[in-house]
Amino acid sequence: MIERTTYKLKGTLRIDFETDRARLDSFPALESDWNKLLHRLTKADEPLRYHDGDGEEDMLYPFLENQELTVFADITRKKLSNYGNSFANVQGTAMQAAYVQKLRQDINRWIARLDSYLHNTWQAGNNSSPAAETARWLKERLEQSLSADELDGNNNYYRMLRTVAAIQENADYYLNQIKDSGDIDPALSLLVVYLKNYGSIAEAFNRRLATLPELYRKDILHAVPQDAVQDNVYVIITPTEGIGGFTLPKDEPFPAGQNATGEELIYRTEKKEYISPIQCVEADALYGFSNPSYGGALELYKQPIQLQDTTDAQTLFAHGEELRIGWQVESPMLVLNEGERNISIYFHLTADSSIPNNTKGFVLQLSGAEGWMEQTSECYIESGRLCFSFSLPYNAVAPASCMEEVHGTTTEYPVIRILTDNANCPYKWAQQLIFDSVEIKTEVNGIRNFSFYNDQGEVDTTRPFHPFGIQAECGACFLFGNEEMSLKNLQEVRLKGIWKELPETEEGFNKMYKEYGTDADVFKVSTEYQIGGRWKKCGDEQKLFSFNENGDLNSAEIVFSFTVQPQSISSDEIAVPYEYSRDKDGFFRITLESPSIGFGTKAYRTLFSETMVHNSGCKEKKRKDLPSEPVIPVMADVELSYIATEETTLSDMERSFIRLSRITALSRQEPFPITKGEKQPFLPSVPAENLLYFGLPHALGEQNLRLFFDMVLPQEKIPFYDPQPGRQVTLAWEYWSGNEWHPITIESVLAEETLGLTQSGFIEIKLPEKISSSHMDKQGRAWIRAAVTGDLSSCLAVRGIRTNCIRLISQNGDGTSLPAGTIQGIKEPDERIESVTQPLSGFGGKPAETATGVAVRQTSRISNRHRALMIKDYEHLVLEFFPEVDKIQCIPIPQNKGASKICLVVFSRAEDSRYFLSPAWKLAEIQQLVRQYASPFASLRVINPVYERVNVHCKAILWNSVPDKGKAVRQLVVLAQNYIAPWYRKEEIPMLRQRYSYKELHARMVNHEDLMRLVTLEVNGKSLSRIDVDTVDFTFEGKHPWSVLLPVIKIELLSPYDGIEKAEIGSNFIIG
Fold first, then answer.
1. Which residues pair with residue 696 across a beta bridge?
2. CATH code at 282-321+684-803
């Protein structure tokens, strides 16, 4: 059975507070109804005596007990209004039989008294009088209600209840029958006459007293009804596009329909209102989540906040998307069109950097023609450098410069983005790394598309060709170039290929050229690069041919090594195809320097001629062998490779072709170039883990900003929302200068009505400087942000954030709240205003006080004299000053030492009509007011009811004949819910300090007609293995006196054939 709270501790409802019978307004000081007086005489505890007509003294009670008139008075005084609901609430419990038995006893007592009356009338010979007939008819009706023994307990109870209710409905008819019969006992008639006479005297007395409260209030207390408090509304003024800021004068009228008297209802401004061109078009909540699965790594999330036309409020710092911040590196070093490409990016760390053990947590995205391409990369720290390296295979798509419509930004060269990854978010350790320079290194192999020239002109390198021409004389040269290499600071360039039409071994080569007085080692070339229209030497001469340890000819490989960078990078547009000219950098030349005969084509002709002349003039024995014909080298499968590096310090970024920009939390991951400086943290530190960002267009030249925050209770936290008053939430503001955040001083925050986003209100800020174009992003937005610290559970959900929201007050209203959307314009058209909207209903108004309201207020004040001493004093003070509170319950909590702690539990439908919860700011306001009237030594706390989950798990088997199992499950859920939380379905205010019986819950559910067997019933995982009379019950209740249990009910239906685990009765489960 539920243990009920005592009357003194059940709290005070507003309806009880306003209709308290303790006041003298229409309160009958003396009872004047003779029926009630007769009933009281019958029920009097003390024995009353009277003298009959013969002068004999007798007891009054036996005389009145068996009179038809008193029996009928007893029946009509029976209060049946809540009998049906009370009986329904005890279904399946031991109290069910008690309810039936109690009503049956009352009816049996009435029957016995009527039977005694009829017996007396029979003895007196009045058995046929109208009064006797009426008594006989009443007796028969009551007996019939008891005769249905074949009915079950419920139907029998309701039949008795309907019979008594029908008699009460026809009370006037039966009473007239009894009075008009003339058969009332003379003594009783005399008593009735006396009571009526007394009633008329008491009524006259009551009328005299009825004027005293009004006299006291008006003439002594001078209490008069309070006037109406005018309604307030918020309206949003949208200025016309292109119009700068302007000011609305004080008392500017806004029409709002008609008031109650038919006049035009006018709302007006209370002061001059500045209408700013600034709009708030974007708001984001950024927050970090410390993930224990990754060693407490701080994951970053970004939650876009809907600002306009939203019906659902958004809980802050929840349901965000992954936020990726980091760096954007743009450089010609990332022009990598083909080949196998290895790229490394180094951030040179300073000595004060804190080196982590784990460097995971970044993703690399390379810009491609169709979007961002995520790269498989390595991140590590070595030699004081934070390194990021990745590779592009030969068939990988080439990087491309960024385009606005594809990448959200436009760049001259390709871009690599280094972004945080929440899988192993590096934020905590990366913000402790400080770097002062950046280096990019690229190693590329296998470039096949490049320009190649020899003395015959441009050469098609896709087919075998003679690199030194068809003569290949000493001094012959060829040159090549590639636009990709022309953009870079090269460290090394290699020309590779395969030699064709040459001897395959060093021995064969030397044999061929022995007659020419040379060998393979003599063939050397010089290397040069062109810069500024001039050829510059590049290292010493090198051998043209090389052989392996077996003497076999190796593939061609000519190396250009640079100690000084070969060219300065030009940002001029590159011609396509990449054609040679004397003023174009990025070309390389290889010249055959030795032997002097070159490859011997001319020497061969000379030698051949000399041999032929010699042989023609001598005998055969002295003739010389004809010289071997020299070879002209052919190259095939020519490729280029190179190594390039670029390094720049942060203090010299302006002269570098590496463009380093931060990817911040601002919209669209827009990169912001860093400012010139000596060092930078790899990830920026933030003032708090929870931040609010606001994007503000049309802010050029403005310095003042005013935002209205429309805050409501966070629905997703209800009903388990438990804000604690007194726990502060603070906002620290900063503004974006274009590349970094600057603080806004507390003095510059001119107004902060939200109390840390715990209530609706205005925030007004005066920035340290006017907004200039340098403060804005590429979308033309200025940015501010707020660091939110403190107890975030007290923050409300955001329903809207608006600029140019001004407050209007009614001029001639009656205190009634104005519906949202009523005000749609200004009284006199103004071309500066594009539109006027009223997003919210009016607030703060109050109709004029009625006489009853005055009486309630004065009675409360007289009762507690504005002092909180007793429980009722605390409750009445809250109800008097806060009309939005529907119920207040004061709970004294005894302490080991000193006075009890006073806990006030507030129930209000103003913000939440389902669970009666109030925001933290309202609880704080109530607590602040009550403290004014309570003892300074009293410990006071004002809270919401705290809802606690109670898990009810029921396993049941239904009869096979049940047609709708879903309906049966729903009924079982309702049975459990109606026992633990009957207020929920009735939408009533819950009762506190309730304790519930497991056995009673079990009895309610086990008696369901569709239930064949209740297998198990668990409450918070606890149950009783057997339920009978001797089983010791256990109870469950909330953890605190202000707790309300809210059941989470799970009904699991089992098959009738289910046995133990997988065994089934009648199948594989055998007893024996």
1. 782
2. 2.60.120
